[in-house]
């Protein structure tokens, strides 16, 4: 699919494609043409031109999302291109903007917004090398520290120290880049480039370090907080976090697995849970909450009823919810506002079919994403599911991996899915009849790939044909057996893998020591 370009954009491409000429001629370019030239350079991956454009940026703000988004001159949105060449050129250009004393332009730049960059699975840039959120965090922190060292050592123009640029970024911190980010945040006051954290993701980090760095990020400006995987945050730590830090603008909160476990609750724990609920109620902007893989049986009301703003996104996958929890969700004021809902890991047809469909009917007018993985949805439930999904005319994404459905039931379901006008993404299970007879659900990891691959390919082709015949080529259908693509996990999987091996080794050593003592 080709996107139309205006004559202005074609001219801009011609101008920037000659690197040497473009760099020499920048001083004669009108201010209002810089955004156009930037997008053209980004499309053509002209790193040196990008660097010089940013180094001489003549405007008050530099917003990556707007600069790369759809424009009248070129409709294509390039904000999902996390091209390493382009992004590194942007950030080094920003550093040199501060240092360049001979630029013909007055230094007006006050705000740089890097939050509009989207990390996606498929990259279209020629270099095929991406710079993800972790690497952007790393590079910006490194450049800020280097800039300070240089300013302290070199004879700089006094005006350089008056430059103050807020750089809005989504930080991603792990053990490996922790020290570098901490140094950059500690010296924020003295540095002309001031890191302003809009969203913060923490993974593979000791709890003590997490508590230290989160205070440095200026939590009063934080919109999104993700504490995931290898941060061992439990309920008492969460209460401590909310008691010691205020998050007035927080809109989205993700908590790691096993933050809550009601199976070992005491009266003190019940009070602690109530306190956490009240503290979350004080965060008036909170509309997205993810608490997957915690055990919350019978406690959803206690946790969510104090919230004053309706949730738009709720992930309670694998949280062992009971009928009372589902009844609360179905009847709560959140139900009419839920745009994204994940109830994976619950036996919906067996435990609370009618309550679930009541919840679905309440959110049907706004629901955009529904995830029902490993929910024991069988062939006999498909007609009921179709009935429940019919009013969900805004549904864009439906994920139902891990359900024991036959290829025949999937074809029936796909025929219906073609009728949902906004649908873009479907994640469907390997049909039950592709696995050996007697397979039990949920399927364990060892058996997950032991299916008839040729038969699966035939069924997948038939399902895609159903979409094709209904003129729904716009719908992407896939079976990601080990979960959907996660850019953050993909970028740091080597570090996380090393951490898991280390943890396993330590556990093994402890076991061996204990065993030897017993012997």
UniProtKB/TrEMBL annotation:
GO CC terms: cytoplasm
Alphabetically ordered keywords of this record: Leucine-rich repeat, Repeat
Family the UniProt entry places it in: Belongs to the PRAME family. LRRC14 subfamily.
Name of the protein: Leucine-rich repeat-containing protein 14B
